[in-house]
Amino acid sequence: MNNIIDFTTKMLGLQGIEVIHTNVNNGIFIVYAKLVFSYAVCPKCGKITDIVHDVRVQCYDHLPIWGKPTLLVLPIWRFECECDPEHPFDKTYEFIRKYQRQTIPFEEYVFDLCSKNTIQNASEIVGISHGRCQRIFNYYAEKYVKSKEVKPAKYIGVDDIAVRKGHNYKTMVYNLETGDVIGIIDGRTKEEVMDFFNNQAAEFREGILGVAIDMSKGYCSAVLEALPNAKPVIDRFHISQLLHKLVDDARKHIQNKVRKEEGDKDKVFGIRWALLKNFEDLCDEEVFKLLKVCVEYPILGECLYIKEKFNAFFDITVKEEAITFINSFKELVIESQIPELQSFTKTLDRWLPQILNYYDCKITNGPTEGFNHKVKNIKRRAYGYRNDRNFEIRVKYECA
């Protein structure tokens, strides 16, 4: 019997206790243990005392043993000290956090499960409540995030993300160099973003040199007003995305016209992806079909030429060359007289300084979009979050 007790003591892997009895009840492995040393250190004067005030028994969840849930039954001793006999104190166990009803190894096991599963799945695996599981995860996730060395941010990305239906948005702020989440802002208006930046330390605000954003007036104004040394950078791929949308709008216009006049929209409808893809990525069948339609409808041919012409913009590395290219490209669009594309020249004029800031900072919104995709997956795995704090902790932990 003593060999079994000794083996169980080693299985527990806890210091300062000795197993005195074990039992199995309703599939739960119950371990009764006692203190190895019956004294305590007074938290007020630091002296050792062995004056016992009273003893009670408390149960704690521990790691499963032999595939069974394990319950650890421990005596909680209260000691008195000569320095203040009217205020007894509990002897604490190093493997149990204050006010908790589970051991630290059990909490670390739960945290590991929560990191790889949803909170609901983890709670079902270990057999504890959802709320208790969430509290354990939050404690260790926050502890990990705080322990991580925070590097000063020079270049950041700002973008919004929908957290639930009904135009409910949050603005994500990322460190583009490390991938860390700097902050999660409720809403996406200029005032809300400015409040976030103004609440940051002056050292942080003055250290930001570039901010990658999409074509949002609110974000741009907030950056210019709240971050004195930062340059807002419009992502060039958002510009390309807008051009592709306008080219597709022109195709839709021709498609509707063909459907009304000829009663057949398929020959224009079927070339959508061939028109929007890079020409060098097309297969022979797509090239043949696209060129055939472009010969029949010259406007589509012009759209294709303008779209492909703009791709050269991504190969430019010098600001002066970029200015020359944009000016010549605007003339090309104006000469085409394609109605759907004329607004694109106004967009280039409106955002030209922010587009050209790329050549000073060399940052894009690509990493931000990747981080947003990761955040969406976090939200999707949990089927949404009702508690904003839980959502923020999970995002900061997984992106840390």
Provide mean pLDDT, rounded: 88
Distance between the termini: 49 Å
Structure class: alpha/beta
Q: Helicity level, as a percent range?
A: 40-55%
SS field, number of helical segments: 18
Shape: elongated
Walkthrough of the structure:
- The protein is 51% helix and 21% strand.
- It is an alpha/beta fold.
- The chain folds into 4 domains: 1-96, no CATH class; 97-147; 155-235 and 364-399, Nucleotidyltransferase, domain 5 (2-Layer Sandwich), CATH 3.30.420; 238-361, no CATH class.
- Strands 1, 2, 5, 6 and 7 form a 5-stranded mixed β-sheet that branches. It has a 5-stranded mixed β-sheet with strand order 10-9-8-11-12, with helices on both faces.
- The longest helix has 27 residues, at 236-262.
- The two termini are 49 Å apart.
- The mean pLDDT is 88.
Blueprint of the fold:
Elements: H1 2-12, E1 17-25, E2 28-35, E3 40-41, E4 48-49, E5 51-65, E6 68-80, E7 89-90, H2 104-116, H3 119-126, H4 130-147, E8 155-164, E9 168-175, E10 181-186, H5 190-198, H6 202-207, E11 210-213, H7 217-226, E12 231-234, H8 236-262, H9 266-269, H10 272-276, H11 284-296, H12 298-310, H13 319-336, H14 339-350, H15 352-356, H16 358-361, H17 366-381, H18 388-399
Parallel strand pairs: 2-6, 8-11, 11-12
Antiparallel strand pairs: 1-2, 3-4, 5-6, 6-7, 8-9, 9-10
Helix pairs in contact: 2-4, 3-4, 4-18, 5-7, 8-12, 8-14, 11-12, 12-13, 13-14, 17-18
